[in-house]
Amino acid sequence: MANSNNLTAQQRAVLFGASTRQHFQMLGMQEVKGGMQTVSFRVPKSRIMAGVKLLVEGKIKLTHASETSYTLGDVDIYKALRRISIDFNNGFNPIVVSGDEMALINMLYPAPEMVKRGTGETLCTVAEKLTASSGGAENDFSFMLDVPLTINYRDPVGLVLAQNAETNIDINIDIANAAAVVNNASGFTADFTSVKVTPMIASFSIPSDTRAFPDMSVLKIVDSRNEVFTSGLSYIKLPVGMIYRKLIFKFETTDGAPLDLEHITSNIELVFNTADVPYSVSPKMLKQINTMQAGMAYPSNCLYFSFDYQGVNGYGGSRDYIDAERITELALRFSADCGGKITIVSEKLSRLIAG
Q: For the whole prediction, is pTM greater than 0.90?
């Protein structure tokens, strides 16, 4: 019998696929009334965790003295979740993003149109125009967000052992102020009369043969950061030390409204070690590339680089990953004719190093 320590990650993946069984397990629903609250769920100590799906159902009450409606953007309703985090008791947090940022990540996999706002035909059910009135009008909404720990549904990279006495895994969801859903629009008052959150854990059984245990030396990290930029040249340094699979850039005005990409007057550039520029693409061209890759229009103020695209988003090989473990500086560079804000959402891989 071959020594399990001599098997490659690919060999382990093949054996794991033949020796495990997928499991879906619901956790109990939690409900809050009003925003700015947190709900927490403890992941059961069983099996090998692959990710979480969150079913969110709610009612938002919208009030305005004279306006009768507010038009939502494609992913605005996901702003109901201010923060989604998966927290380990050792301080490791592989997922730390808002609901709309997670929705943008979900759109970089097959069937991205399912993430957009719809009236029953997508994963997000909400009216395009929220009803408002002087006395307050209640609007129903629901959506499902995928929060995977693995890089996709095919490759067992990023799996986490939940069946471990020393490890506690918590899913923490911060409910936003309801005004975030309507982008703090002037004159509108918004309140959540109910928000229900129900998670489902996706996991795999533990193989009886130790040779079929998957390689867990690579972890996936999804997080975001916010930066303010001014008119002229912006040079924003990005963290190094990990391997980038996806980068999403969401541009906003200083007051938080979507920024017209016409205000970006230069190419969008990724700069390695201050001099190497492997990506230098105009916003218009990058927007078209994004539409080609996703098969649909991405939100108007967002651009992305999907380094795992090789014909299908999310399922390509590692050829085009940005290995920021091997460079000392990685930066985003662009020029604009006005000031604004940029949110950078990234999906990265971190390799565990023994010793």
A: yes
